Amino acid sequence: MQTFQNYILGQWVSGDGVETEQFNAITGAKIGEVSSAGIDFSEVLNYGRTVGGHPLRKMTFQERGRMLKALALYLMERKEKYYEFSALTGATRIDSWIDIEGGIGNLFANASLRRQFPDLPYYVDGVAAPLSKNGTFIGHHIMLPKQGVAVHINAFNFPIWGMLEKIAVNLMAGVPAVVKPSEYTSFLTEVVVRDIIASNILPEGSLQLIVGLGRGIIDHVQTEDTVTFTGSAKTGKILKGLPQIADRSVSFNLEADSLNACILGEKAVPGTAEFDLFIKEVSKEITVKAGQKCTAVRRILVPESLIDEVQIALSKRLASTAVGNPSVEGVRMGALATKLQVERVRENASLLAKSQEIVFGSLDEVQVHGADAKHGAFFSPILFRNNHPFQQTDVHDIECFGPVSTLMPYKSLEDAISLARMGKGSLVSSIVTPDDQEAMDYVLGAGSMHGRVLVLNERCAKESTGHGSPMPLLTHGGPGRAGGGEEMGGKRGVLHYLQRTAIQGHPSTITKITQQFQVGADMPEANPHVFRKHFEELVIGETVFTHKHTVTDADIVNFANVSGDNFYAHMDATSLDGTIFERRVAHGYFVLSKAAGLFVDPKKGPVLLNYGLDEARFTKPVYPGATLGVRFTVKEKIDQEKRSEEDIAKGIVKFLVDVYDETGETVALATILTMVRKLDQSN
Question: Which segments within 593-649 are labelled E, that is strand?
Answer without folding.
Answer: 607-618, 627-639
